[in-house]
Amino acid sequence: xxxxxxxxxxxxxxxxxxxxxxxxxxxxxxxxxxxxxxxxxxxxxxxxxxxxxxxxxxxxxxxxxxxxxxxxxxxxxxxxxxxxxxxxxxxxxxxxxxxxxxxxxxxxxxxxxxxxxxxxxxxxxxxxxxxxxxxxxxxxxxxxxxxxxxxxxxxxxxxxxxxxxxxxxxxxxxxxxxxxxxxxxxxxxxxxxxxxxxxxxxxxxxxxxxxxxxxxxxxxxxxxxxxxxxxxxxxxxxxxxxxxxxxxxxxxxxxxxxxxxxxxxxxxxxxxxxxxxxxxxxxxxxxxxxxxxxxxxxxxxxxxxxxxxxxxxxxxxxxxxxxxxxxxxxxxxxxxxxxxxxxxxxxxxxxxxxxxxxxx
Length: 360
Prior knowledge:
- Helix content is 9%, strand content 31%.
- The strands form 4 sheets. Strands 5, 10, 11, 12, 13, 14 and 17 form a 7-stranded antiparallel beta sheet that branches. A 6-stranded antiparallel beta sheet has the order 6-7-8-9-15-16, with no helix packed on it. The protein has a 4-stranded mixed beta sheet with strand order 18-1-2-19, with helices on one face.
- It is globular.
- The chain has a domain at 27-41 and 78-302.
- The protein is built from 3 helices and 19 strands.
- By secondary structure, it is mostly beta strands.
- The two termini are 30 Å apart.
- Pfam families: NIDO (PF06119).
């Protein structure tokens, strides 16, 4: 399908790809429920990463113990000279005041298995349990102690949602906590948020899961403070993930933010999030109207009414919005979100074919 976009002073030509295949998942020994035949999409072409990395093999969930002697961080690692600001308004309630459960203070640790009060559909697989891992990610089939993230797409053996996957340490500083809700004001807020971001849906949240990393330090730089939050929202058939970012300290280590699935049939990397030096920009970036928040639909999306979308008009501030590589990825992600709202499946892949400046 060829998509033609009309923008002030610019013409864009995009190709939209949507391929499906039927994949039968192997039975799991965990509480995750996998349909016998799941319709999933083939992975989009693997993007060329902005820098060469040696990703850790994603098929394993354990890493060798850290040696007692740690090489001090490079001089490029800096710490915040002032205390982080209070949690921004985009954060959902968290902490002791919200009745959260607290993860053990353990390097590379995490929660025990958490039974979900409502099943969560994640790209065709339905899960009834979750793990909150101290190193900044959520997994479903088993915990993940791995402290060096692999680069998405990892073609790994488990589904993962990474708010900020890196080597975090809550022993000296910070709290990792979680809670889930089936009624009350949190569900009301989640309903309003999803209907605001996806106005063509009639959505009423029936379950919300909130996991928060509050002023957690990087390992071994214990005076750093990083705060972020992942919010899972569902009405039992539609599933969404909100990633909220507060103060993010500069990191001198490998980082990754986004999501990945088994065999990477669906994945997304927040632009710039795999660069520890620029990771603090997450608190100002977004694919919606709220700085510091990224929103994704993760159930798999609708599979019908694909031909209802024939065009899209958008406003850009300047030509640089499209010529800057990181900006282009954000623009394409925003366009994708609009297409999904209009009825296209969430697995569509957008490729920029041509940019033409039609006015000075």
